[in-house]
Amino acid sequence: MTEVIKIKIGNAQLAVERSGKGKAIVFLHAGVADKRMWNHQVAEFKDSHFVVSYDRRGFGETTAVDEVFSHIEDLREVLDQLGISTASIVGCSQGGRIAIDFTLAYPQRVTALALLAPAISGAPAPESFPAEIQAQLEALGEAEDANDLPRVNRIESNLWLDGPTSIAGRVTNPIRALFLDMNEVALRTPKLTQEIEPLSAYKRLPNLLIPTLIIWGALDFPHVKERCQYLVDTIPMAEGKEIAGTAHLLNLEQPEIINRLLRAFLS
């Protein structure tokens, strides 16, 4: 049975979905999504594992006030309150960044790490973008300055769902409708300004001494693909896989492929 509970951390109430029994897997969503992005993975693994996904502060069904907080410590508190001593962690994009940061902070609590197009704390910013991508980023900035949230959502769906060099609308419903709904919730939620910034992970990646899988899409941002290859080259026990014809949110586009890769890796 799958159930959603609320876990209180400070003045926040985190919406946490849990299901199944067995070894724990925790799924951490991207910064343009919420826990619903993992529906296919929850369905795949709940018969063999204890599966957890949750909405971070600022996303989905979680409620929070603007107070000092840490995504790393929120994750630790979720594990503690669910009685999970160790887990495999799967993170996408910003969820991948948090997975890396948490593993560096609490290595004894992570048995395996699977990262889908992850961000990396402390990674150098891209020096430039190709002209077609730069134009979209400038349009996004204009929409943000105008507080035109529907336009922001459309542009971000093109960048992150279709891929920054793909035709807008490449990915269709129901995936597109889910993205737009998840991201709209995040865009309309008041911003939190007091996150404790984690230590840079970029130069500490050789300290990740656990099995690690990195997956990225061939249609993603160039700098994201470069960072993923850097992870493969730098983490001692890492393996990598690029998925053709897929952008940033790989498990939404190719759930069967991602489930198969995760199943093989985690077993």
Question: Would you give an account of this structure?
Answer:
With 267 residues, the protein is an alpha/beta fold. The chain folds into 2 domains: 3-125 and 191-266, 3-Layer(aba) Sandwich (Rossmann fold), CATH 3.40.50; 131-188, no CATH class. It is built from 9 helices and 8 strands. The protein has helices at 39-45, 71-81, 94-105, 131-145, 149-162, 175-188, 222-234, 250-253, 255-266; strands spanning 3-9, 12-19, 24-28, 50-54, 87-92, 110-116, 212-217, 238-243. Strands 1-2-4-3-5-6-7-8 form an 8-stranded mixed β-sheet, with helices on both faces. It is globular and about 45 Å long. The model has no long low-confidence stretch (mean pLDDT 97).
Output the CATH homologous superfamily of the largest domain. Alpha/Beta hydrolase fold, catalytic domain
**Count of separate structural domains:** 2
CATH topology of the largest domain: Rossmann fold
Number of strands: 8
- CATH class of the largest domain equals Alpha Beta
Query: What would you say the CATH architecture of the largest domain is?
Result: 3-Layer(aba) Sandwich
Q: Mind telling me the C-alpha Rg?
A: 17 Å
Physical arrangement of strands within the biggest beta sheet: 1-2-4-3-5-6-7-8
- Poorly predicted parts: none
Which percent range describes the beta-strand content? Answer: 15-25%
Shape type: globular
State the secondary-structure class: alpha/beta
**Helical residues, percent:** 25-40%
